[in-house]
Amino acid sequence: MAPWSHACAPVQLRAAGYRRGECRQPEGASIVTIASGRLPAYHETFADLADVVLEESWVLHVDASLRRLSVTLDLVLTPEHREYSPPRADETHCHRRGTLIVDSDTAILARRSTCPPAIDVTGEADYGHIDTFTRATDIADDVWQLSGEWGEALIRQPRVHVRLEVR
Q1: pLDDT attached to residue 37
Q2: How far apart are CA 55 and CA 57, in angstroms?
Q3: Considering the chain, what percentage of its residues have pLDDT values greater than 90?
Q4: For residues 160 and 20, what is the distance between their CA atoms, to the nearest angstrom?
Q5: Which of 137, 129, 95, 135 is nearest to 113 (CA)?
Q6: What are phi and psi of 48, to 5 degrees?
Q7: Using an 8 Å Cβ cutoff, are 110 and 70 in contact?
Q8: Which of 64-68, 119-123, 154-158 has the lowest mean pLDDT?
Q9: Nearest-CA neighbor of 74 among 88, 92, 59?
Q10: SS3 label, residue 37
């Protein structure tokens, strides 16, 4: 199995009282005790991210408004994803164009990088990867941080959705 696969996440979630498609804390469980005493990762917390790998996905565009962060990506899908197909001969992973949408009821703090994008072999601008999407527990337990070469964002109680483009 590839090191980036999240194949074990659904099993860990079900063991902690979650069902696929849910994003909730089980009754009587503290967030720290879920998944053996560690904070759950993004793919364990947000159902739409269960079978994608943000760290290997390419950021193509970032749009931030007061309560929404929208990131256009060439997403890497794991073999467990319903839209997965074997990668082409010249690729390592299954990529699908899509948009990561992160909404919040409070203001999103976003800082865009001033570095220019790289230009990939197809001539498209590329802003690197989403290097981290983790809880910012040093700020508050309900705040998540996204960061990468494209910039960074802090979101309180994020709602996360992924929309794949139609082929």
Answers
A1: 62
A2: 6
A3: 67
A4: 15
A5: 129
A6: -70, -15
A7: no
A8: 119-123
A9: 59
A10: helix
